[in-house]
Design goal:
Blueprint lengths: L1 H17 L6 E5 L25 E2 L3 E5 L4 E4 L1 H8 L6 E6 L2 E9 L7 E7 L7 E8 L14 H9 L5
Parallel strand pairs: 6-7
Antiparallel strand pairs: 1-2, 1-5, 3-4, 4-8, 5-6, 7-8
């Protein structure tokens, strides 16, 4: 009897836990935002993101606040390089959106007024998060890369350097 109750309870909570967002820091790709449209314009709460995050805290070896860069695992770098340049992403902590930006490349000549994840050439696993590209003077908005929730999540997982 008790095992039946436990089974019913487990079956009842499975759908709930399957829909719980990634805990900690996670980078999600945005659905339906074209390369030429800024994700921040839509408002973070109105953006539809993919169900599975592109990157999670487990993909990050370390994060440097002083130069706003992160060292990724090789698997994470492979995932990042598989994304189209210009794709929009949202950084979330415990499922709450903090900021949006674009996946970018140093080989791209176009400017970007958002925060960009700069995909490095070759096998370099250090990825920069830049406020505007090619320089900070192109950035429009509030820089949330050092948001308190992000830093707390990174500190809790011993990723902050």
């Amino acid at each position: 009897m008790i095992s039946n109750i436990v089974s019913i309870f487990v079956m009842a909570i499975l759908p709930i836990t399957a829909s719980v967002p990634e805990q900690g820091l996670a980078f999600y790709l945005v659905k339906g935002v074209s390369e030429n449209k800024e994700a921040n314009v839509s408002g973070l709460d109105n953006l539809q993101v993919e169900k599975t995050p592109l990157l999670t805290q487990s993909d990050i070896i370390s994060y440097s606040v002083s130069n706003q860069s992160m060292i990724l695992t090789e698997g994470a770098l492979t995932k990042l390089k598989g994304v189209s340049i210009g794709s929009s992403f949202v950084v979330c902590v415990n499922g709450k959106p903090i900021y949006a930006g674009k996946i970018w490349s140093p080989l791209r000549s176009a400017s970007c007024p958002e925060i960009v994840i700069m995909v490095p050439p070759g096998d370099n696993t250090q990825v920069s998060l830049l406020a505007g590209y090619p320089t900070h003077s192109y950035f429009i908005g509030i820089d949330q890369r050092s948001n308190k929730a992000i830093l707390e999540a990174l500190e809790a997982s011993n990723k902050l350097k």
